[in-house]
Fold this sequence. Notes:
By secondary structure, the chain is mainly alpha-helical. Helix content is 71%, strand content 6%. The longest helix has 47 residues, at 2-48.
Amino acid sequence: xxxxxxxxxxxxxxxxxxxxxxxxxxxxxxxxxxxxxxxxxxxxxxxxxxxxxxxxxxxxxxxxxxxxxxxxxxxxxxxxxxxxxxxxxxxxxxxxxxx
Length: 99
């Protein structure tokens, strides 16, 4: 009885080790793929001089990649630029023919 329990425990241990090894390989591949995608995105943003952009319409907050600011010839340190940019985007959105 004890021997069967030990054998079952060893099998379970071996199965767990195999599953951990498989999952580790999967995670490594996923991380490599993510890194490759991030690298391609960064290069595309660099080439297009754009960078990432986000806008919270309700608060007016704008999130921009450094390249976006360089493209717009704007300083990240000056809050007035954020507000004027947000206001201009709001005006353009409100005048959009799609509305």
